[in-house]
Amino acid sequence: MGTVRSGMEADDGYRALQWNAGSGGLPTNETTFARVLQQQGYATGLIGKWHQGVNCESRNDHCHHPLNHGFDYFYGMPFTLVNDCQPGRPPEVDAMTRSRLWQYTQMAALGVLTIAVGKTCGFISVSWKGVLGAASLVFLFFVSWYASFGFVRRWNCILMRDHDVIEQPMVLESMAGHMLREAVSYIERNKHRPFLLFVSLLHVHIPLVTTKRFLGKSQHGLYGDNVEEMDWLVGEILKALEVHGLKNMTFTYFTSDHGGHLEARDGHSQLGGWNGIFRGGKGMGGWEGGIRVPGIFRWPGVLPAGRVIHEPTSLMDVFPTVVQLGGGHVPQDRVIDGHSLVPLLQGTAEHSAHEFLFHYCGKYLHAARWHEKDSGRLWKVHYMTPQFHPKGTGACYGQGVCPCSGDGVTQHSPPLLFDLSRDPSEAWPLAPSSEPRYHAVVARVGEAVEQHRRTLSPVPPQFSLSNIIWKPWLQPCCGTFPLCMCGQDRDPQ
């Protein structure tokens, strides 16, 4: 929901920022939990990836940068991991557009070559000046698009400390060590004051770069090796909290932003994880496999160990939870969709504060769930679902992720209804013949959807074409543009 209210949602087919040098990003009027805690006197650090934009109008305005959104320290990647970041991997950033532009270039070059041959053989009456002019236009066309797409790794795969680019392009193999060193150092520097540390891991995202120490360690291939390394990294950060006597004073939360990426494959090898019994995966706004993620909390002495809570919550709850723990207040001038998890975690509340949750794919509402507290049943209504291909596979193989709209989506009228409390795999859609309350449940969820839609206000789309395209004057760069290149000493393995 936060993405819909802030304009950080799909537009013109784009579902994420494509460039560090785009002008879209998290609007400056948004209030982050880092901003609230910073105002409460907390040190606030972000280590890892950001992918919420960098600049608006000039290379150094940093309007979308973490330091402009409440963090007082940033070390990491202002973008996200993509295949282009690892030499030798197939292109990923706007690969379809890139392929189309290369096809147009080849066709135009072939056309100019045909004219030149015709001129040479006397079949075509055209001046050599005209032939050279056409060739120049084709060359300019090629240079204009290749200037961005041909250097994706250099433009997007960069490492920053605060506002400064310190590695361009970044060396992925050394990032696990760098991030661990930075996280431990941040804890050491701030152990005598309240601090917020947001570690936004590059694991376990393709291209699954893993240090030699963990290669082959898992029985589940490269993905498993990457998970093993992530597990080690998280363990080392938790160890640092213990070493500095902070274990019982620190609220720790581990989670993910989406389910496993089913379409990420290397031949017959799965690169994007597995979602167990849950249907679908990353990029699917409605199916459980795309949106049901782990939430693991740790606060010794405050939260009882080993307790499992079977209640529908949301990543939107992170904001009010962190704000409450930090002694701040959520903004009162806007709709806040999340609810603090503190009562649920401490056992003072039996149920989640969410009666309804609305699941978007980009700007399209794909599904909604109703936690009917009286009966304990958890209903899920699907209004749109992606069309899997090959049919019945549970994913959109051959594409990066399933589409949110258009020909690749099925609109359901009447909608699909599932009882997740009895069918968490969403394998058996209910019908009036199998569920006597079918019409009543669909109608009640429909009312909630209409009430929810009345709370939405139009906002500038951050992923519009004008915001998403590469703009050379916004490109973060170390050195003189376009000769952007720098590096830092690599840590030993």
UniProtKB/TrEMBL annotation:
- Cofactors, names only: Ca(2+)
Q: Does the keyword Transmembrane apply?
A: yes
| Keyword tags | Calcium, Hydrolase, Membrane, Metal-binding, Transmembrane, Transmembrane helix
Query: Keyword Transcription, does the record have it?
Result: no
Similarity field? Belongs to the sulfatase family.
According to UniProt, the name of this protein is Arylsulfatase D isoform X3
Gene name of the encoded protein: ARSD
Species source reads: Mustela putorius furo (European domestic ferret)
Q: Which residues cross the membrane?
A: 107-126, 132-152
Q: Residue ranges of the Sulfatase N-terminal domain?
A: 19-327
Alphabetical list of SUPFAM superfamilies matching this protein: Alkaline phosphatase-like
One annotated GO molecular function: metal ion binding
Cellular component aspect of the GO annotation:
endoplasmic reticulum
**One Pfam family per UniProt:** Sulfatase_C
Superkingdom is Eukaryota
